[in-house]
Amino acid sequence: MENELFMNAGVSHPPVMTAPSSSSAMLKWVSMETQPVDPSLSRNLFWEKSTEQSIFDSALSSLVSSPTPSNSNFSVGGVGGENVIMRELIGKLGNIGDIYGITASNGNSCYATPMSSPPPGSMMETKTTTPMAELSGDPGFAERAARFSCFGSRSFNSRTNSPFPINNEPPITTNEKMPRVSSSPVFKPLASHVPAGESSGEFSRKRRTKSKQNSPSAVSSSKEIEEKEDSDPKRCKKSEENGDKTKSIDPYKDYIHVRARRGQATDSHSLAERVRREKISERMKLLQDLVPGCNKVTGKALMLDEIINYVQSLQRQVEFLSMKLSSVNTRLDFNMDALLSKDIFPSSNNLMHHQQVLRLDSSAETLLGDHHNKNLQLNPDITSNNIINPLETSDTSRSFIHLPTLAHFSDSISQVSFVKTNSSTTILI
Amino acid sequence: MMNTYNMVKQEFIKKWINTLHMLDSSIEHPLNVTERKNAIRLSSDLAMAAARNGSTVWSRALISRSGNKTANKPMARRILKKARNRMKNRCNILRRNGNFTAKTGVRKRTDLLKSLVPGGELIDDKDYLIRETLDYIVYLRAQVDVMRTVAAVDLFTRNLTNDRRNK
């Protein structure tokens, strides 16, 4: 059972841990927590409000507004579907929609859309560009995606003596880079060992371009052939063709066709250097898609600045949210196996769900009466068709007499998961 | 059509539930808020790294960093095994350098980024560092989204009950 813990995301509970001196661990945690919780998040545009409520404003509004942003081209089904779920969840549950408003600022929509670009990007693993064009309305992105597919396939075709099977990668691929990450075994001894001559992915390209110098005749002849086609005005497509060429290259050939552009130096040093620079710029462009709000930023230093700010803000958000979630005080008593199975929700009417939930809510209210007992917990009758979030009876979360265990928290998380896992628009309240 | 970002979040949720259960059984009660927050943060980080399944530098570094922080070495070791640990616990405890303000230069910013991304200090190639950062950002974003949703749902239900009670 333990073995399945992280491979299969097993549904069974992990065994009880033996915790020697967990109190000292607690102390260690507290003392080593160097970052104080910073409710005022970074100066990033999207998190300029400093109050807790306003963070939820922006969070919920970003969730609500992302399906219909003004400049969004990425209305990808899954992400849009989830946002539709959230929007319906919020919209149908009273006046939340009015309270939080739909402040579809450009920032928020930009924030939402870049994350939808990796999911379509993952399609490139199958090396098809036409689904890409369907998925995203941005032709430039499709072209970049095609180029990345060339990168990825190039690393697949290159000589790899990976000690682990590539297919062990879980079916989840978040962005285009992941196939490459999994296929290149050089990442094990880290990039500093490139000169050691370990063959893999892009690093083998470096080695091979160096070996190109050893065979100048072959190199010059290949370059001559390539330079003749430099008059082709569409250079972008040429680089794609280049990628296609390398895809079909026998992996045991030891030089790579690099196309020299018009009016540029053509010796092997600068070619290799240019290849490397192009790779880095591609990455930077992809990062631009991922990190919101750096479309206008050019130059490596500023780009890195944006990335650093973004990562810092995300980490601070995690810190803050975990602080926020530590005050969650819900408890749900149900069967975890039933929850984690996907077919728990037949595609039923949203309204019916909602009514069922409300009915159970009201019955719970009458059951509890006016008790403000934090320890009171609900054990609702769980059918396969509805699962409710039991009511929180305490007014405030500031004062704790007895904090519930993390199991309670995890239960509430698992029910939230159904909002996300179901592609249908059933509502879970 | 595969919706991979949702799958990332789903995977993260599953792993998070598991890590919370693991931590919950090993933590003594009662906890104050800070410890609770730390436990949640730790479990969430471990879940994020485990969802990535250990084929990136940052996920392995995050696991070993979290493993060093806790006394739950058995759990950390198990996660490392399952994550096909290839770095052989070489990651030392990485210090966070969040207040560093880089004024000029790509070099300084690269160093700062290395300090932010777990495992970044071990990566020399800037190219690979950026790739790792990309992957890390995706999973970090997934973590933030999930946590935010849970908090929002909880907040909403609390408001709902308060409204009902006040009527």
From TrEMBL, chain A:
InterPro entries: bHLH_dom, bHLH_ZIP_TF. Residues 159-254 are annotated as: Disordered. It is found in: Nucleus. Keywords: DNA-binding, Nucleus, Transcription, Transcription regulation. GO terms for molecular function: DNA binding; DNA-binding transcription factor activity; protein dimerization activity. PROSITE patterns: BHLH. Residues 223-254 have a biased composition (Basic and acidic residues). One of its GO terms (cellular component) is nucleus. Residues 264-314 form the BHLH domain. Its main location: nucleus. The keyword NADP does not apply. The keyword Nucleus applies. Residues 159-185 have a biased composition (Polar residues). This is Helix-loop-helix DNA-binding domain superfamily. The lineage of its organism: Eukaryota, Viridiplantae, Streptophyta, Embryophyta, Tracheophyta.
From TrEMBL, chain B:
InterPro entries: IBH1-like, IBH1_N. Pfam families: IBH1_N. Keywords: Transcription, Transcription regulation. It comes from the Eukaryota. Coiled coil: none annotated. GO terms for biological process: regulation of DNA-templated transcription. Residues 6-65 form the IBH1-like N-terminal domain. This is IBH1-like N-terminal domain-containing protein.
